[in-house]
Design brief:
Blueprint lengths: L6 E9 L6 H10 L4 E6 L3 E6 L11 H6 L2 H17 L11 E7 L4 H12 L12 H5 L3 H10 L5 E5 L4 H15 L4 E8 L5 H9 L28 E9 H6 L6 E10 L9 H14 L9 E4 L5 H15 L6 E4 L1 H4 L6 H9 L2 H4 L1 E2 L23 E2 L5 E8 L3 E8 L4
Parallel strand pairs: 4-5, 4-6, 9-10, 9-13
Antiparallel strand pairs: 1-7, 1-8, 2-3, 6-7, 8-14, 11-12, 13-14
Helix pairs in contact: 3-6, 7-13, 10-11
């Protein structure tokens, strides 16, 4: 990793389909509780999705919710929860030294689809087009809504990196702290994807949308009968600080950012490429000053598509071989694919492993695909590890964007 300050996670705020805070989320992961449910959306019809049920009015008024966006609401909830969890003396902080960096897959489709639907009721008369449309659809909207809600006057922007974005929002916060641009970063990823019918139609046209008679079993990475992605919404935001600042105030530290990497397949619009994924994993490990055997848990990106899961498993196999101390799991089997929030949410769900040494399992693997068989793939029940000091988080996205983030237990 490049020289500079050591960056640590001191607060976690999240909204997921099976939990509105880290304790609830983690408990449901260990208990095997899915957050996928029946879902219906205009034009597309009935399907399944990961739907969040957090209290939207906890940090926003009814008017603020009406003016803002779903992604903004998720971001505001997660950011406030992260700040509260961190124990930061918020009222005493210099708001100009706080930055907000959120990964997104896309933003604006929900609002545009909604406005078109509404004006159709009035013979497409654009007089009925909302004057809030432009601020709702700009790409920086979710991060910007957070700054308005929390009165943050430092920098804010989003990182558009498809489904690799959650990791890269965290990386961006880490880099800005190292550069001295800010003293505190609210970083992570958010997604409102289930609110747009286009994403369901798009995956359906690619034969990549999961179908199952039991919604809780629709998301099934690594299973031989897997048939696609379960689209989900959600978010996870972390407070990132320099280690010395966190220690000086006696903060609880969840983990330290140890290394990261990003690269591009440069091969295909949709299909992943195992060689570039493996290169990205190796680069992150090298930057962390580690060897593959130093990684104790790999949280996979695997979305439940036949080709995608096989490609990632091949990449993992090529890097880690049969390393007996490296466990592998998957979180999307519980909550579906939260797109730009996926990497951040999946990291959050695994962070408590530093405390309890438990690796949550992958659910819905009834018949393991031999091409996805990996040494130490945790898929029947949680596993108690003897040692768990490092987590490697994979997040890959369309157009061949790959991101890998490594977090380690803080060593003094």
């Amino acid at each position: 990793m490049e020289p500079g300050a050591r960056i640590v996670i001191t607060g976690v705020g999240l909204a997921s389909p099976n939990g509105d805070n880290l304790a609830e989320f983690r408990s449901n992961l260990l208990a095997g509780v899915s957050g996928v449910e029946p879902y219906s959306i205009r034009y597309f019809g009935d399907t399944v999705a990961g739907v969040c049920h957090f209290n939207t009015k906890k940090y926003q008024t009814r008017k603020e919710l009406r003016v803002g966006t779903r992604a903004g609401s998720i971001a505001i909830y997660c950011s406030n929860e992260a700040v509260q969890d961190s124990g930061l003396p918020w009222a005493e902080l210099d708001s100009s030294r706080t930055g907000v960096y959120l990964g997104i897959t896309e933003h604006g489709n929900v609002e545009t689809e909604g406005e078109i639907h509404e004006i159709r009721k009035y013979d497409d008369n654009i007089r009925y087009w909302s004057h809030y449309h432009n601020p709702r659809t700009v790409a920086n909207n979710p991060a910007g809504e957070v700054t308005i809600n929390l009165k943050i006057t430092g920098p804010h922007y989003t990182v558009g990196a498809a489904c690799a974005a959650g990791n890269l929002g965290i990386v961006q916060g880490c880099q800005q702290l190292r550069l001295g641009e800010v003293d505190l970063a609210l970083a992570g990823g958010v997604s409102e994807s289930i609110r747009t019918f286009g994403i369901f139609a798009g995956f359906n046209s690619q034969n990549a949308l999961a179908v199952h008679e039991d919604p809780t079993r629709a998301s099934r990475p690594f299973d031989k009968a897997r048939n696609g992605i379960v689209v989900s919404e959600g978010g996870a935001v972390f407070t990132l600080e320099r280690l010395e600042d966190a220690q000086a105030r006696g903060a609880k530290i969840y983990g330290e950012i140890a290394g990261y990497a990003a690269n591009s397949d440069a091969m295909d619009m949709v299909l992943p490429f195992q060689e570039r994924q493996a290169e990205c994993i190796r680069k992150a490990i090298q930057r962390a000053g580690m060897e593959p055997g130093d990684i104790h848990l790999v949280n996979t990106h695997a979305t439940g598509t036949p080709a995608g899961d096989v490609q990632e498993c091949a990449a993992i196999r090529s890097v880690f071989g049969d390393s007996p101390q490296t466990y592998v799991n998957n979180t999307k089997s519980f909550i579906g694919h939260a797109m730009g929030a996926a990497g951040a949410l999946e990291l959050a769900g695994n962070l408590p492993s530093f405390d309890d040494l438990i690796v949550h399992h992958t659910i819905n693997v009834d018949d393991l695909d031999p091409e996805c068989a990996l040494p130490n793939l945790v898929h029947e029940a949680p596993v108690q590890a003897e040692k768990l000091d490092t987590i490697l988080n994979n997040s890959f996205g369309m157009l061949g964007i790959n991101s890998v983030l490594i977090v380690k237990r803080v060593q003094s």
